[in-house]
Amino acid sequence: MASGGSITRGSWRPTAALVIAVVVVALAGCSAAADVTAEELSAVVERDGVAFDSSSVPDGVLRRLSEYKVILLGETHHLREHWAFVATLMSDLHDDGFRQLLIEAPQMAGWLLDDYVQGGPLFPEWEAPPFYERRLSAIRAFNETLAPSERLHVRGIDANEEWYGGANDFQLLFGWLIDRLPPSEEVDVSLGEDYATATPAAQLEAIEALLISLEADRSGLVESWGGDRYDQVVEMAEVELASIDVRAHRREDDSDGARAREAVIKQLVDDRVAECSCSTVINIGGHHAQKSHLMGTEQEWMGDYLTHRSAVVGGSIIVVGFSSAETELEDGAGGTPWDILESESPDNELLRVVAETWPGRTVFLPLDDLLFNDRTVAYNS
Prior knowledge:
The protein is an alpha/beta fold and 381 residues long. It has helices spanning 38-48, 59-66, 82-93, 110-117, 129-143, 166-179, 200-216, 218-225, 227-252, 254-275, 302-308, 350-357, 371-374; strands at residues 18-22, 50-52, 70-75, 98-106, 153-158, 279-285, 317-327, 338-339, 362-365.
């Protein structure tokens, strides 16, 4: 990976026996050949790297992270150790005021996932729970040791994409939430039985009608449900409205659909950070919006956007990118395990150098040295 301007810093990544944490400065790769030698990199990695086991995060690293309002974790999807590390990080940061974890999960499931980490059940009819239960069980266990006012909250910040179940799962999750609330005598806030199979145009019409109904009986519903639940239901409908557009664009033009999805994610992140009088950790794919068909000058990458454009975050963010030198994948995940030391990566590739310098360790590497600003570093994620 080539370093760009000194825009954001950060990076981690769990592995089977070896987790490499690399603070990433660059936003987009550079086409120039790497001009930093393995010997130069090794000297910096040995001097600046903080090596530790993954059962706790060193105080020095926590102090650096806790200076920021937002910590963005850019993950490699499906690493076996990743979510255990996220739970460790959240518990270690708790005393510094971190109370919110935003994850790359559909917004429609946010209420259910948060209820789960507060001690509630996951609905067995929903096919996704085993996946999220495995990932969030450690946070649920940590919350059990805390008073309700001190507990961590988990929010979904993604659009309701087809791979999450799309309209079908939205209908299920929305219905389950409504069923848990006192019924309204003034207005019908349910969706029709055929919502999931309706055309996008009909779905738009149904959600728009739902939003009108919610607004029409706002005072009554707030009194019955409480303001937080009312806002939650309204947001579910608003995000589904945007998601219908995302799903339709995906079918017609995937690039447009991807950009529409990113817009939803960014808005949800801004909203979540703004409404929480706490510090926030965001866990999202490490190359979000840095696909080849999206890369450009519009700051589409989440870290870049939050650093430079988000009025809510105001630049108070550190980006921590997870890179694995050696790993196994989660059960059921696609792909194959890898080992950087057995790969064909060059001897001056950053992960290889870290793995050779700190064998078998988790390493936090801040990219503060000017070498990462002024030179081109080979980086194979």
